[in-house]
User: Fold these one by one.
Assistant:
Number 1:
Amino acid sequence: MKQAIPEKEYVQHLLADLEFDAKQVQDRQVNTIFIGGGTPSLLSADALSTLLTGVKQRVNLAPDAEITLEANPGTVESQKFSDFSHAGVNRISIGVQSFQPEKLLALGRIHNDSQALNAAQFARNAGLNSFNLDLMHGLPNQSIEDALSDLQTAILQRPPHLSWYQLTIEPNTQFHSKPPTLPDDDILWDIQEQGQVLLDAAGYKQYEISAYSLPGQQCQHNLNYWRFGDYLGIGCGAHSKISDPATGKITRTEKVKHPRGYMDLSKDYAYKSWQVPPEDIPFEFFMNRLRLLEACPKQDYEMLTGQPLSKALQQNLQIALHKGLISETQDAWQLTLLGKRYLNTLLETLV
């Protein structure tokens, strides 16, 4: 049996980690907090309150900051969501993945369909500013009808935000070692097209490759991420991206992954830290920015990468333009419908 992480001790380590790293953001205003990774909804409301109070003491947190907590439907009840809200959380992201018992079993989820529906109801009644449902499609042996049924069930819960994304097989997972039978590309595209019709009809607008929201309910944390903004990560396995406006250098940091190692006072919280090579920055910018459906102002490229647009990259952008993967105006680039479908091809073109 795995030993539980001591809650109070871990929160104090999180704040010590932030104390050390806060100098990197100096007096910059922090507009979003995202408490994710693992199952943070296992934390008590008291622990979250201590954490958020400590954060406010160490950084310049905006008064109207978006504060999101990831939650597993199998670890929450109505009172706990209400307590999270009182602790300072104003947005919950619920990892539903599917509403179908056999699909949840195949994914190894600890919750069932009833718990998923209850979690959505709890979030709706908890006094939050917003909540999100995380939903997957392209699951093992999933038909178009199964995928659309899941999506319709999610829409009926009226979440202000929906993350609807295709299952990908990650290394070092059970599916990677024993690959399941997944829907073919034609079925996946049919799911995407027909699902888009359902979402549009229900008032959900797509603003990112796998994110949809009701008007004014986009996830601000994710928007910052995809717009190539900076973020400071604290906690086990957390990642940071911090730009230095004076030098144009971008530093990425990865924290120790295992809780025991992370809380070892004889070691640093950071596992590794490195400067992004200048030649990698253009691709990183477009890999993030072109996931958004909004136009990308050309001035953002030089402002956020610290580099002028190279001749080679200009040529590659022209190739993408001729292929119909992006459109262009005098001031901006924008992903096209074709580019949305073939995003990997677009990124390969830019490389």
Number 2:
Amino acid sequence: MARLGRMALWLVGVLFLITCIVALALIFPRRPSSAPSLRFDGFIALPKVKNDRALTVLDHLTVLGNDLFVASITNGAVYKVGLNTGAMRNPPEASDFGLAGAAHALVVDPTSHLAFVTRGEANTVDVFNPTNMSLVRRIPVPADPDGILYDPLNRLIYVASGGAKSATLIDPASQKSIATIPLGGEPEFAVLDPATGLIYQNLSDANAVVAVDPAKRSVVQRWPLAGCELPTSLAIDDADRRLFVACGKSSKLAVFDLSLHRVVAMVPIGFGADSVVFDPQLHRIYVTGFTGLLSIISQAGPDTYRVADSIRLHFNAHTLTLDPATHRLFVGYSSLAIAPRVAVFTPNR
């Protein structure tokens, strides 16, 4: 009995030690590993908000002009960080816009300069003034809105609702929904093709991508993504007619030919890939996801890709965005018991 008691105590001690190590790893993000292709500039620490919780999970990041907007799933905040205020060196001048419901993604209407953010739990698109972060209106939409984009050709806001398996078109002038488009699967993220005016939308439960014509207000084409399980985020190379698809379950980046309508390349990346961006000037694709592995993929040609670098970040550092003007990369970190933060990287040419 004494021996069994000692073994039980030893096991409890080991489990306690493992729990402490995991907790410390979650609480204190380590400095990202170095890489030839990217230089780590530091963290932007986001401010406390009234709805703060012990765990903060960030979702979509968006650079609009000189501001970085960061949406939070857990506390509902939309942070705004001025990138001209020395945010990488000094405490950032940031404001938050917090309401009930997980905040996912946002866009700004270039005419009214108002912002539109999706809220998954509230099933709304919230319209707010990004200058003073004040609410203007809440627009009801179908269940689980997530991805959002602005269509300049038709002057519409496009919203993808995963739970409802549909998309909503919103007129930013009247701030009202004007159409609902059945998609035939669970959407998450969408991209606009400036050459055709079509919106390409992933269907995560069907391992497929569809083309939505906002003028016709319908799905006009649908294609399977061979070898891509759980497609999540998308990015587009409109010059070479390629669509980049992060495949969360199969740990791949799929390259889809928009002319041939088939997958032409698969690049190995980390498990749980959730966010992808493309820098057309540097010919780079950046992907990160659930495991916190940032993959930097070099584009040698339309169908030729290689992993140039892999950088270990932080657990669930799953979302990123690119500043097209400076080529800087911003990655959102999940946080436990400390302020949420965004890692900033500058490319080495």
Number 3:
Amino acid sequence: MALFLRSFVIAFAFLVSCMAAAFVVAYGLIAPELSQFSNNPEFFLFFLFLGSAAGVVTPFYVFAPSFIAILIAEMFSLRAVLYYALAGGVIGALAYFMTDVAARTKGAGTVAPLMQELQWLAAAGIVAGFVYWLIAGRNAGKWKVLP
């Protein structure tokens, strides 16, 4: 019964952490134009739209690697916030490389924007790992202990 309830907590924490990562990515998309849009009331709606759209797509990209990281944490009762932040950062970088990077490198542009996208996705992964730790990671593996 404890494992059954724990699975709902894990699923909820995964979805909330994906939404947090999506809003970090949305902020990363808007950040260069932030000074232009800061006085407009539509800016907030645009930010919510981008965050919500990214929140729908994010779980599909990161489900398999996140499932493996969560499974390792639950089996070995890893409760350290550093594990979740590092795993989230690696999964965020992996999500960047799962997209079509070659299409963006074909142009005659510089490499700096590519590194900036990678940094935003790694930061989003770190935030997602921290949010997951706040909701479910702090109690990883406690379902194995009988009361």
